[in-house]
Amino acid sequence: MEAYGVGKKYRRGWALKDCSFRLPAGRICGLVGPNGAGKTTLMGMAADLLAPTTGSVRVFGTAPGSPEAQRRTAFLAQEKPLYRRFTVAETLRLGRELNPGWDQRAAENIVRAGNVPFEARIGTLSGGQRTRVAFAVAFGKRPDLLILDEPMSDLDPLVRHELMGALMAEAAAHGTTVLMSTHMLAELENVCDHLVVIADGGLRLAGGVDELRSAHVRLTGTFQATGPAGADAALARHTVVDSRADGYRITALVRPAGPVDGVWQAETPTLEELLLAYLRSPQVPPLITNESQVGDRNLAKAVAA
Ligand SMILES: Nc1ncnc2c1ncn2[C@@H]1O[C@H](COP(=O)(O)OP(=O)(O)OP(=O)(O)O)[C@@H](O)[C@H]1O
User: Which part of the chain is the ABC transporter domain (predicted)?
Assistant: First the structure.
């Protein structure tokens, strides 16, 4: 999936501005950002539910509305639209009729693992059970791109664990690309190997989790003689994403421009530390790793189109 200079303007203003990135195939990508950052908007455009105001989104090299993209993409929305009067079995039958590559066994297995009765009407199920059925429909479609909008918010921890396991197994077996918005950092650490962070409608981070983490260091040092000013001077060459002083002790999350001078204890930050630091510091320039960048020529062409 690629976004080329994508922007979306609603009546109240811009929800997303000038987002350009590439999500390589086969990744499980966490889409993270504060409430109202533009995550649902971005996913809606990839699923062809919304049209961008500027730029364009491409999936499998085509427009999200193309027959190929529609066939190969499944979108699980936050509100899980299912027909309340259908039974679970009828819901799966509808999935089978609408999708040529339907995998009935995969869908049934997910329903069965939660002991959800096939003859129960959707309207009588609990929120979590409905989410499970929606998952079953999304998996049954055997998509190459699975877009999940906060899929776990109404699931208990055991079910969340089980469905995430099923998701990872499915993605590993079939090379499925997953784009999943979430506020649960634990989910990110365990499940995602790729990350896209947006805040205030703009891209903050995009790239493989390992590469993003290892592009930063968390530094801790004591600056008894000079205080925070000494730390600032020692880090002047580097991009300081976030720093805190606790007496003489300075902790800084840094994107180093080369070797770091001074007496620091250096560690690779956790994903959570990295995320929080970028979300707290809107003035720091975004980091888009090489593999996540879209070429300038393609970008210019797509924006002009
Ligand atoms: N249909 C709409 N009409 C007007 N404004 C909208 C519409 N949909 C979204 N917005 C606005 O666009 C911005 C981005 O919303 P979006 O739902 O994409 O955020 P989000 O990152 O998914 O948030 P959350 O984490 O709360 O789900 C918000 O300011 C929201 O109020």
Answer: 1-225
pLDDT bracket for residue 77 (50, 70, 90): confident
Residue 199 Cβ contacting ligand 1 at under 6 Å: no
Average pLDDT over residues 84-95: 96
Q: How many other β-carbons are positioned within 10 Å of the β-carbon of residue 224?
A: 9
22-51, pLDDT tens digit by residue?
Answer: 999 999 999 999 999 999 999 999 999 999
- Phi, psi dihedral angles at 31 (to 5 degrees): -110, 115
Based on its alpha-carbon atoms, the radius of gyration of the chain, rounded to whole angstroms, reads 22
Q: Ligand 1: does its nearest atom lie under 6 Å from the Cβ of 41?
A: yes
Is the confidence metric ipTM above 0.85 for this complex? yes
- pTM recorded for the entire structure: 0.91
Q: Would you say residue 303 has pLDDT above 70?
A: no
Torsions phi, psi of 118, nearest 5? -65, -25
- Ligand 1 centroid from CA 221, angstroms: 41
> Is 205 in contact with 195 (CB distance < 8 Å)?
yes
The DSSP letter of residue 59 is B
Mutate to test the pocket of ligand 1, among 8, 41, 57, 182 (most ligand atoms within 8 A of CB): 41
pLDDT at 13 over 90: yes
Cβ of 85 below 6 Å from ligand 1: no
User: For ligand 1, what atom is nearest to the CA of residue 43?
Assistant: 18
Token digits of residue 255 = 């994107």
Pair 147, 46: CB distance under 8 Å: yes
Return the pLDDT at 299: 56
| 206 within 8 A of 274, measured Cβ to Cβ | no
